[in-house]
Amino acid sequence: MNRVEKIVYDLVKKKPRIKFFLRNTYQTLCDFIPVKNEISRFPIEVREGFFFGFHDKCPFSADDTMLLGCMFSIPLRMPRSDDKLTIGYFSGDNYSSFNKFYETRSWNWHQGCQLQWRGSSNELVFNDFNGKINHGKVYNINTSEVRDLSRAISTVSSDGSWAAGYSFERIHRYMPGYGYPHGHRNDIDNVAPETDGLYSVDMETGKSSLIVSISQVASFEPNIEMMKGGKHFISHAIISPNSKRVMFLHRWVKNDLRHRWSRMFTCDKDGGNLYLFPTHEMVSHMAWKNDGKLLAYCRLKNEMEGYVLFEDQNITNYEFIGKDHFTSDGHPSFDKSDKWMITDTYPDRFRRQKLLLFNTKSNQVEELALLKHYKRYSQSTELNARLSCDLHPRWNREGSIVCFDSVHTGKRSLCTMNIKQITHGDN
Fold it and tell me: Are 90 and 97 in contact (CB under 8 A)?
């Protein structure tokens, strides 16, 4: 955002109906100005008809020889309960050969089916629907064996021993576009149920246990006035690199689902040492930087917004990073060295998304790509908001390739860009 856009955004950011109307009108007027579909620092390998999902998972195998991907066959609309998503992995030169292994009914455009590797093994984890419930599955590439987990998963620990999850049925009700359109819970209409929340899944036995209930987080240092009349839920869980703690979002909505508030928590794998971060009203996208520090795009109590680096369980130790460079939300992740952060932006007035590389040591940002986000994918209405395609950039294990989803060719595509020249150069 430029200076004027930021001023307008700050004035309307708490009024979603006005905010969306102004943005959509502004972009529609700018549609008459022609722009290039792609401007990039390095060549982009495009795989049309495929995507991966969110930014918080690594789609590359432990040795970087395989790249996970999802192949869709439906037109540009929301997935229905009987729509299937083909999942598999790319191999070969530039990940050019797709090897499919399963079809799932539990998926959405933003996060796919939560497809991910189980630690450094050749086992893949994803969600599916068995006709009654959404639940996780584990697929072994070497043996083609498939086994079931008792609950749907969001994130698997780095050591592959456990996973964290939450109710995707409840998410579908209160944050459409991030859950699944099937399955049922008796407590789904409850304000803050004790029977639902964040749970852990043992990756060996497949058994699950509730570790933090929605009722527990809703009653933890509550803002009574702000929460009054709200329906609460948990989303966006990410396990720490050392597999010991998990961060997640506590959210609630009132009436219009666009009126959403968020808080960020961490806890131990058994739910102990529950910790609330000092954010105010809004937290969106997060990433662990290392075992003790994590990043979130959020608002603080002084009304300032930006990428804030927090120390886990230390309420006084936090700082803005890239303050001079990042004026809007994005989807961040760090490479294994902690030196490089990759992130993106939402479409600007010309419907262009930026792919950005941030050097945490020198505090410098490099624009890797400027990519067109076509209007038909635009978040112009509540329905279309579920169809948009964020870049959601993700690192390979070596920190030399960035994988992202894009629609700059006109079709949703799984893309990769080799940036080894920068990350493994003399910078």
Answer: yes
Q: What global pTM score does this model have?
A: 0.93
Tens place of pLDDT per residue across the chain (427 aa):
777 667 766 776 777 778 777 777 877 877 778 889 999 999 999 999 999 999 999 999 999 999 999 999 999 999 999 999 999 999 999 999 999 999 999 999 999 999 999 999 999 999 999 999 999 999 999 999 999 999 999 999 999 999 999 999 999 999 999 999 998 888 999 999 999 999 999 999 999 999 999 999 999 999 999 999 999 999 999 999 999 999 999 999 998 887 899 999 999 999 999 999 999 999 999 999 999 999 999 999 887 899 999 999 999 999 999 988 998 999 999 999 989 999 999 999 889 999 999 999 999 999 999 999 999 998 544 444 589 999 999 999 999 999 999 999 999 999 999 999 999 986 5
Q: Are 88 and 59 in contact (CB under 8 A)?
A: no
CA–CA gap between residue 1 and residue 42 (Å, rounded): 24
Q: Which phi and psi (to 5°) does residue 186 adopt?
A: -65, -25
Cα–Cα distance list, 322 to 20, 37, 109, 275, 327 (Å): 26, 27, 29, 25, 9
Separation of first and last alpha carbons in the chain: 27
CA distance 360 to 321: 8
Inter-residue contact 7 to 22 (CB < 8 Å): no
Handedness of CA 287, 288, 289, 295 (dihedral sign): positive
Q: How far, in Å, CA of 159 to CA of 123, rounded?
A: 12
| Strand intervals (E) in 49-195 | 50-51, 67-71, 85-91, 97-104, 116-117, 123-129, 134-140, 146-148, 155-156, 162-165
- State which amino acid sits at residue 149: L
As beta bridge partners, residue 358 has 341, 365
Q: Are 264 and 296 in contact (CB under 8 A)?
A: yes
What SS3 state is found at 71? strand
CB 319 within 8 A of CB 309: yes
Could you tell me where the DSSP H helices lie in 313-382? none
Closest CA to 67 of 55, 53, 52, 85: 52
- Cβ contact 25:375 at 8 Å: no
